[in-house]
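To whoever is on call:

I kicked off a structure prediction for a single chain this morning and the downstream step that reads the tokens threw a length-mismatch warning. I double-checked the sequence; it's 412 residues and nothing unusual in it as far as I can see. Pasting both halves so you can look.
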Amino acid sequence: MRYGGGIPTYLGLSPNSRMNFAVPGVFASDQNIPGNRRGDFASALLQIEPNGTAPLLALSSGMESADAADTVITWFEENHLSGRAQVTAAGGVNSAAIQVTLVDASFIIPGTIMLAEATGEFVFVEAVVGNTITIDRGFAETVAQAIANSAFLQRIGTAFEEGSARPIGMAQLGYPRFNYMQIFRNAWDVTGTARRIEFYTGDVVAKNKADCGRFHAEDIEKSILYSRKSLGMRNGKPYRTMDGVLVQLVTNIQVEAGSVAWTDIQSFLQGIYTRNIKGKPNERMAFIGNTALGVINYIALKQSFMMIEPGVTEMGIKVMKWMTPFGDISLMTHPLMVESPLWTKELYVLHPGAMRTRWLRRTTPDTYDQDGRRAGVDADFGVLTSEMCVEYKAEVTGGKFTGIDTAGAKLT
């Protein structure tokens, strides 16, 4: 083993080297920051973390949680039926026709009054067979007009005569959604020799355990956001991965191919605030990357007027809250989005009441160094294990806006 300049050259570092590296496997006595041992010259440990206004576990810590009893969880959802029915692409009729074919007529019964949105004509539903309705045209003194292909009819209400027979009963059935439990495991390992050496950064075992916990939390947080559902076999045993929150969002997805304008974001938020969860406040939380945040602030700057006078020492705009007629959004920069060039251009708007973590096994430390039990290995070690997934109910209450990297033109 050769030494030079006071630093062991087997570490592959020069005295002026600055590196950040992970140590796989068992942490040994020679795997530390050069100069960190008390027997060497003093050194300080500086951990550089991605910046952000939201803590790393802002997403998962703010969620409701519940235990689970299986590796697959299922929940049912019901969306409010707006009563809006679309005419099929080839289902348009002239002003005299009395039968119209809809894409879905399952929520319509005889006695329903409907409005042709494009023309203002009211029609009265006399009969329903499958998705074809028989109607009385020009109802309530309106004028019968042609109903175009793909036009919409809006349910207004029902009307029945005196002494009428019982109407057909209707019930709304929810649709099932499911997710898989995912197992997360992270380990810490310290050799007996490394444990006996004194370091300026403190107890090496505690440091190693803390790193293990941080890695474990980060794995869970990233999976809650970005994971995708899968099943498979490894080493003859099954494994599962879950769908993260963003995969579960399918309705309010906006991908920006060009520059982003003020109206683009307001339209995006309007779609999100259109629906709410019964019994929950109509509030949202928003995570954003630095690039997207810069674009929003630049949009605000382009829509504003700034006056600079002598003596002014501050200039600029800092927007961390977007106020719209539909609702206000507080923007939080998430550390995982800030440090990644893939996610720094994205905006995630989520309903805090829609998310819930489900745990088959809550985070459990397994230590093998108690009472001198080391299984014949000259090291202390332990494992953190969690088995959980996330559910996002009422996904229409959330949304994802990607590609926010250029501000559009000023409104005229």
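Update from on-call: the warning came from a stale cache, not from the record. Cleared it. Sanity check on the structure: The CA atoms of residues 298 and 386 lie 42 Å apart.
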